[in-house]
Specification:
It contains 13 helices and 12 strands. The protein has 348 residues and is an alpha/beta fold. The N and C termini lie far apart (60 Å). Bound molecules: flavin mononucleotide.
């Protein structure tokens, strides 16, 4: 194993250990959902038993407008977690994001693991994942496409994490050429490309640039949940007073503003970053997200309450979402829009 691979393994281990705790939460900045309340409708004709939350995710029908965000990989524990989450996703019939393929690309011995993941996930959509900083350096995408084939990935997610790369020891804060690389990837890939952040958010302006490059989906992964600056600051044993800890655009702001681009562009909008309750998920959907997603709370629930705990958590969240839809007179997800929300400051 190369020195580089050893470094990646120990970094992934530390990421996983830190994300098992709440020490990596944003400090003062929030996702902004707490500013909203639902517009209660005393007159509701929504029939709760007929509310259907199923939705198409790039051609595959899934049960909820929810996916498990890309996490882990590269360590034995990470692989095990991915396998367990694949079974959870299959049970719930929801999409699953995989952790970055970077390590697999460098070590070349992941074919068997990916076959296992696909087997455990049954037919649910799987999202392969790679860093923007990595695709810039690739002369060819052949090996990446080979791995994506092994896992029978439905979608490729490219994560953009400039803040994390900036603060990470031996990070690669160099995204020069990212637009050209993404454009090339879109042209050569047989699958749709989603671009995501990891907790600092994607602005409306950046989203428009991505859409002009042919990106099919945007996961804004905003601020208010896991702070990846926080993760790296803790790894570096630096002062937790570092002002970059709370850097980023709040999740609710990103969803609301990026959703405005839907008037003129066709794309999937995923709202994530600090989605830690049924009400967060419902507000993300009402603000304009097509799908919502969570990472760290899923990891923590899996560790604490095993697979059954994650299944119960997600099922319970979406039972609540149905009740919220009933109380706001929303028969379906199409009619569950931002007019179903009020800003708390306007009413009390
Ligand atoms: C343990 C862990 C590992 C992660 N690894 C990746 C990764 O490999 N690729 C990626 O795009 N995002 C990764 N993320 C970021 C998440 O997908 C997500 O964008 C971020 O944590 C914010 O969501 P949250 O507030 O629900 O945790 C990881 C998150 C966690 C908790």
């Amino acid at each position: 194993m190369t020195e580089q691979s050893k470094h990646i393994i120990s970094r992934k281990k530390e990421h996983l250990e830190l994300c098992k705790t709440d020490a990596v939460q944003f400090k003062e900045k929030t996702s902004g959902f707490e500013k909203y309340d639902f517009l209660h409708s005393a007159i509701t004709e929504a029939q709760i038993d007929k509310i259907d939350l199923s939705k198409k995710f790039f051609g595959k029908k899934v049960t909820y407008p929810f996916l498990i965000s890309c996490m882990t990989g590269g360590t034995t524990e990470g692989e095990n977690i991915n396998l367990q989450l694949a079974e959870v996703a299959a049970d719930l019939n929801i999409p699953l994001g995989l952790g970055s393929l970077r390590f697999a690309l460098e070590t070349n011995d992941y074919d068997e693991h990916f076959k296992q993941i696909r087997k455990a996930a049954k037919a649910v959509p799987l999202l392969g994942n790679i860093g923007g900083a990595q695709i810039i350096k690739m002369k060819s995408f052949k090996t990446l496409f080979h791995l994506l084939d092994k896992v029978e990935s439905d979608v490729l997610v490219v994560h953009l994490n400039p803040l994390q790369e900036l603060l990470q020891k031996n990070g690669e804060p160099n995204f020069y050429g990212i637009k050209k690389s993404l454009e090339k990837l879109v042209k050569q890939s047989s699958m749709p490309i989603i671009v995501k952040e990891v907790g600092s958010g994607i602005s409306k302006k950046s989203a428009q640039v991505l859409l002009d490059l042919g990106i099919a989906g945007i996961d804004i992964a905003g601020a208010g949940g896991t702070s990846w600056a926080g993760v790296e600051i803790l790894r570096n044993k630096q002062s937790t007073e570092n002002p970059f800890w709370d850097w980023g655009l709040p999740t609710s702001y990103c969803i609301k503003t990026v959703a405005e681009l839907k008037k003129k562009n066709k794309f999937m909008l995923i709202g994530s970053g600090g989605i830690n309750s049924s009400f967060d998920a419902a507000k993300a959907l009402a603000l304009g997200a097509d799908f919502t997603a969570s990472a760290r709370i899923i990891l923590q629930t899996l560790i604490k309450d095993q697979q059954a705990g994650v299944i119960t958590l997600i099922k319970d969240w979406f039972e609540d979402v149905k009740q919220i839809m009933f109380l706001t007179d929303s028969q379906n997800l199409r009619s569950f829009g931002k007019e179903k929300l009020i800003l708390k400051k306007d009413c009390y």
